Each structure stands twice: as structure tokens, then as C-alpha cells.
Amino acid sequence: MVTHSIDELLTAASLKFEIVAKRLFTPQGGEIEDLKLIRDDDVLYVSIGEDFISKKLSEEQGLLNTKKSEWLTLNVGGKYFVTTRSTLTNKEPMSMLARMFTQGEDTEWRIQPSERDENGAFLIDRSPTYFEPLLNYLRHGQLILDSNINAAGVLEEARFYGIEGAVDILEPMVAGFGAVENETAPLTRRDVLKAILSTPTTQELRFQGVNLAGADLSRLDLRNINFKYANLHGCLLFGTNLSGCNLERADLSGSNMEGAQLLSVKMLCANLEAANLQGCNFEDPCGLRANMEGVNLKGANLEGSNMAGVNLRVATLKNAKLKNCDLRTAVLAGADLECCDLSGSDLHEANLRGANLKDAAFELMLTPLHMSQTVR
What we know:
Layout: H1 6-17, E1 23-25, E2 45-47, H2 55-70, E3 71-76, E4 79-84, H3 85-89, H4 96-101, E5 122-124, H5 128-140, H6 151-161, H7 164-184, H8 189-198
Parallel strand pairs: 3-5
Antiparallel strand pairs: 1-2, 3-4
């Protein structure tokens, strides 16, 4: 191309490259302002006004841009995660994340990346709590779950993202958790009956420490069974025969024990708060006393129960209903009977020494209460 001035050369370059060429440079970066400086076979560089950029600097800038493009920011459910493209694509190349961020021209295989937020992060509308252990798995290949993270939730996210390696690890883990939960679930009436029928009469049947919360055990013959430390909260036990049972430190709070047989029962320090024990029978014809020492009967209803000879030493009976109860020779020494209703009860020869009788009701008693019974 032969020109007569720099302006003509710039005009020709503008047409050739479809730019507005304004400056010319030598390969070394020197600006050309006179045609006499140009020799045959010279390589010239043209710009639209910016300064000369050397080839080396251009290559370094391109490498920097490549490195920058390797890092990605994900906005998962409002939480930001910064990771590399290779982390998302190398370990699980068929996952949804890999198909979103793999660079290539295979448009049928790739998934279009999601929209970006105002900070340029890729938006993913999923749980960040369950995503984090999966991202760490993609980083180092180990699936580590904190104690406060539900493995079932992580499994659902792994299935959503198509991270099959994590799915294979999590499925048996979740199945194991389900087995543990089944082991700790409360036993039912069916389970108790099965245990009773399968145990020989010569062997002791034990439900010590067993969870029976809310079970319907009404009208069953459960005599002499060991329920020590068992959870019987809210159980239905009306009409049940619990004679001779060991219920030491068992939780019977809120249970319905109306009309139950409790002859010579052992209930040391048991919790019967707010339980219904109306019409229960504690008196053993053989003279064996029911031992309820230290029991918690706060707010319990024992109206009309036969409690002759029962040991209620240092028991808590605050706000309990004991109307029309037979408490002959019962031991209530040191018991808390505050606001307890003992109207119409028989306390003949009952031991009330040291008991707290504040605001207790003793109306219409069958036998007069002798002062010596209550002297500390």
C-alpha cells in the first residue's frame, strides 16, 4: 500500500480494520509521525488512540484474564461461595454444576448457567446449608457433615445437583440414621404383648429404661414387670394390673391410671405429676406396703383411691386431690401436702410428722386428726 501521508495511511487502516485509526507504532513501541521513518516490510501497529501495548504485556494480560475467569462466585440461597471452575467440573463431570460451567462448544451437553445477581454471582435457588458439604466434597473428595446437619437434606441436594459420588456415600448413611430412629421410637401395645407372650413365666420380664411414651397399655396384666427408669409419659394404664411392678424413677407424668391395681408396687422417686390415679388400689391383703417414697404426685388426682399403709415419705403432693381416700396407717412424714385436698379422707393412724400442711383441706374427715400425728 503506497500512501503520500500519515493521514492517508490511517484512513486506509480504518477502512481495513473497521476502526477509527489514530496512531501508528513500530514493533518496539515507537510512535510514527513521518512516512520517511517507514521501511519496506516493516510491521506496523495501529491504535484508536490508546498507547502501545507490547506483545509480552498482551500475553500476560490474556493469562491474567484466563486466571480471573477460572474463579467463580455462586450465590446459593443468599450465601456466597467462591470456588474454581475446575472444582465444579473435574470430580463429577456429569453433574449439573459441571455441565453449567464446563467451557466448550458442545451446546447439547452443556446447561446454560443461571442468571447473575448485582454482584455478578451465579444465582442458585437451593439451600446453602446443604450445599456447603457438597462443595467441600468436590474440592477434596471427602464428605464431612457437621453434627447439626441432616444427612437426608444433603442427600436430596446431592441428587438435585447430580453428584453421584456423594449420593452413594449418603444413601447408606441416611438408611443407618433411620434404623437408629426406629430403635429409639416408643414401643406400642403390640410390642409389649409380643414380649409378654414370648417370655416364659419362669423368667423376669424387663422393660427397664424402655421408651413406652403414649402407649395404650390399658387393662393388661403387667404384674411383677420391671419398668425401672422407663418412659411411660402419657400412657393409658386405666384398669391395668401393675401389682408388684418396679416403677422406680419411671416417668408416669400425665398418664391415665384410673382404676389400676398397684398392690405392693415400688415407685421410689417416680414422676407421676398431673397423673390420673382415681380409684386406684394400693392395699395388699398380705400386708405388703406400696413404696412411693420421694414420689412426685404434684397436681395428681388420687380421689377415691385405697392407699392404706402406703409409704409416701418425703413425697411431693402439692395441689394433689386426695378426696375420700383411704390413708389409714399411711406414712406421710416429711411429705409436701401444701394446698392438698384431703377432704373426706381416712387418716387414722397415718404418720404426718414433719409434713407441710400449708393450706391443706381436711374437711369432713372420717376420723379426727390427732395433733401428735403432725408434731415434728
